[in-house]
Design a protein that fits this description.
The chain is of the alpha+beta class and 118 residues long. The chain has one domain. Helix content is 31%, strand content 17%. A 4-stranded antiparallel β-sheet has the order 1-2-3-4, with helices on one face. A hairpin with a 2-residue loop joins β1 and β2. The longest helix has 17 residues.
Length: 118
């Protein structure tokens, strides 16, 4: 079983152990969004909004993170939604599904907001 197959409840750790670990947040988000990132899943703005909302609520109510701000903008011509972290960085749970071939992104992205996110 690889880390993408590990059940979410087995990834949960006490508040202080995980909140300063970006890799833990990346792994959890990767697992949480696995089905949504499948090639055959078309990410409409409404589905993307619901994914970000449910992820933000899961992180807050189950894992104890602050309630992240949900941001909507554009990447090229596409509407795109991501979470803004308290330190100003972003968590984009489906960055790799953006059809902007001029900017290759990982499946899940945590870091400074790229300049092409408007």
């Amino acid at each position: 079983m690889d880390k993408d197959d590990k059940p979410l409840h087995e990834m949960a750790t006490p508040f202080l152990d995980c909140h300063d670990d970006p890799q833990w947040l990346l792994d959890l988000t990767t697992q949480y969004t696995k089905g949504m990132r499948a090639e055959e899943t078309e990410m409409t703005p409404a589905l993307h909004w619901n994914l970000c909302t449910s992820l933000a609520e899961y992180l807050h109510y189950v894992e104890g993170y602050p309630l992240y701000e949900i941001r909507a903008g554009h990447i090229g011509e596409q509407t795109h939604i991501w979470l803004e972290l308290p330190d100003g960085e972003i968590l984009d749970p489906i960055a790799g599904k953006v059809d902007d071939f001029s900017h290759k992104m990982p499946d899940v992205y945590i870091g400074k907001k790229p300049g092409w996110y408007e």
